[in-house]
Design a protein that fits this description.
The chain is globular and about 40 Å long. The chain contains 3 helices and 5 strands. The protein has a 5-stranded antiparallel β-sheet, covered by helices on one side. It has one domain. The longest helix is centred in the middle third of the chain and has 17 residues. It has 122 residues and is an alpha+beta fold.
Length: 122
């Protein structure tokens, strides 16, 4: 099973929704977070930078539709994403957790995640 967190409601097409890192970055850049929230956000970003490989989005020649999904065994990474989700929810932003056994054509894989070109339907 694979897991992806996105910003948006259940009625919205998951392929049109952005991820939590993008949305938290946007809110941070707009100055929407308190100092304590921004500190919490930066701690999560630092954890990801130290513990999660960064897929080569900019150099691989993938389409803009390529997205990352966590493997269900990546429990620490998923917990960090739940922290981002809680922060967004506190700011009235809808968050969804998607699950799929086969989210798309795999372009990249590491021990924690895959990057795929998503199928139309999950």
């Amino acid at each position: 099973m694979f897991i992806r967190f996105v910003v948006g409601g259940d009625e919205e097409d998951h392929r049109q929704l952005s991820g939590l890192v993008t949305e938290t970055r946007i809110l941070r850049d707009k100055g929407e977070f308190t100092a304590a929230e921004e500190e919490r956000l930066e701690a999560v970003y630092a954890w990801f930078n130290a513990n999660l490989p960064c897929p080569p989005f900019s150099s691989a020649g993938w389409s803009r539709n390529a997205v990352a999904w966590f493997k269900d065994g990546a429990t620490e990474s998923i917990q960090q994403m739940r922290s981002l989700a809680a922060l967004l929810i506190q700011h009235d932003t809808a968050v969804r957790m998607l699950r799929s056994r086969n989210p798309g054509k795999v372009l990249y894989e590491d021990p924690f995640q895959i990057v795929v070109e998503e199928w139309k339907n999950l």
